[in-house]
Amino acid sequence: MTIEELRDFNEKTERIKRKVDYHTNQAVNFKKIYELTKGHKGIYRFLNVFAKKRNQYHCQRGTELAISQMKSMNKIFKEFNVTKEDLKKFSEELIDDAYASIMEES
Predict the structure, then answer these.
(1) Which of 23, 37, 79, 101 stands the most exposed, by the fewest C-beta atoms within 10 Å?
(2) CA separation for the pair 20, 69 (Å, rounded)
């Protein structure tokens, strides 16, 4: 994975995080409205039903975004693990080469 791909992924992650935060805040706001209008009659009853539906929508939408992002991050972490193992092997080879060159000088 190149640095440009990582930057794009990071920007996408930030955008999705802001969207999830937005849906979370909206769900909390509609939950408050739902709880305040619970058990009332008249226009408050319609407001209660509307708040319940919007709360459910924002909860569902935020959850879907978060799950999709977690799946994407899982793929990236798997790639990092492979890269990390390769880096370990490379660093061990460098250390071995450095010790060998020191031993030759002695």
Answers:
(1) 101
(2) 10
